[in-house]
Amino acid sequence: MLNEERVILMTKMAAFVDREGKKNNAINSYFRSDYVGLNVLKSVISATVVFFIFIGSYVLFNFADVLANIYNTENLLAVGRRLLIYYLLLVGVYSLASYVIYSYRYSKMRKSMKAYYGDLKKLARMYEKDREDDSVTRD
Predict the structure, then answer these.
(1) What's the whole-model pTM score?
(2) Separation CA 123–CA 13 (nearest Å)
(3) Which of 1, 12, 26, 81 has its CA 20 to 30 A from that of 117?
(4) Is it the case that residue 106 has pLDDT exceeding 80?
């Protein structure tokens, strides 16, 4: 005989697996520090690529100004320092934002997985109770 509560719980769990389960299982295979660290590292690499794309675009659009400033060594060092500060600022802000976002995603995943495992335990208790009820009625 079908237990309506059990069917509802199984449907809820199947919907979770279809919606979030695969993504959550991929995240759940990491420790928090590994997951956040890996994604912050990816963000630093992405920020570096973006920075160099911006610098390359600036050089291409203002090529005459760049060539005129190359021969001025003092100005070149100041520009280099300024670019380094901009780079560190960009990477710092991007890394901080990535850390916050991926920490939040990991904690959200852990909360939803804890609820899913709770539902699994509840389903197992329902099956165990049904088994006990069946064994009592057969005796």
Answers:
(1) 0.74
(2) 10
(3) 1
(4) yes
